[in-house]
Amino acid sequence: MKIDFLVPGINKCGTTTLCYLLGEHPQIFIPEMKEPHHFNRSDVVEHRTAYEGLFREAQAGQLLGEGSQMYSTEEFGELVSERLAVENPQMKLIFCVRNPLKRIESSYREFHHSGPHYAVNAPFGIANAIAGLPALLADSHYWTRLQCFRKHFRDEQILVVFLEDLQKNPQQELARCYEFLGVDSRYHNPSAGAQLNSRDEKLYDTRLLRFLRTNNFTGYKLAKISVPKQNRLFSRLGLRRPFTKPLEWETATRQQVVGALRDDIQQFLQYSGKPADFWKEFA
Fold this sequence. Notes:
- By secondary structure, this protein is an alpha/beta fold.
- The chain folds into 2 domains: about 5-100 and about 135-195 and about 260-280, Rossmann fold, CATH 3.40.50; about 205-240, no CATH class.
- Helix content is about 45%, strand content about 10%.
- It is built from 13 helices and 7 strands.
- Strands 2-3-1-4-5 form a 5-stranded parallel sheet.
- Helix 3 packs parallel to helix 7 (about 140-150).
- The longest helix has 21 residues, at about 250-270.
């Protein structure tokens, strides 16, 4: 078995939604398991049998693919791209991206939402989060993230999908993906326009709950409670809340981020055939 294509990220740019929509095509098979993260594992050889088991129900002739956003991160990009070139030198790669500022906001929410799973206490406020979580900025350097894959794959094997385009013209963008993968581009996807893993699903701790998590007397007790149970319990108590308001940026932080990313983003937009002001903040 070999993988025909991957959606390796970028993190918090719509990978989950795109994989779901691609998997609706009758000529494509994507496992139900979200983000297998096989190619960045330390035990990739030992895990191979389990990984291939995810594709057990694929029909003859279907293209095999999956999406795992960790594949394109600063930590794993080099390793994964080398492994993919061994897996299938003709593999096709689809990268989903969005306005970097929106990506950072989405990642910020995800760190707060998923933090209890990994005992991570995400900092409050965008400025503090950027200072304390380097991946927020690092994974927004789209051009840099792409380079390790371009070392091993031709540009003809790489397609960039912009989340803004996918949301505005879903059937048209999906047709581009189908044509790129070599399946019937006339397929009308009944789920086009769906949006998975939305910000409305994300929760954050109140400062009181954060105090309880980090307190020596209560923290270890809370850690014994399963995260789903924590979400239910603390949501009812008003200690774990959904993100209902837009995130606020300090002017200096926003300028700092735009300045740090501008050159990278301009190269990426040019490579992708987009105008320099596609994301106006970076023009």
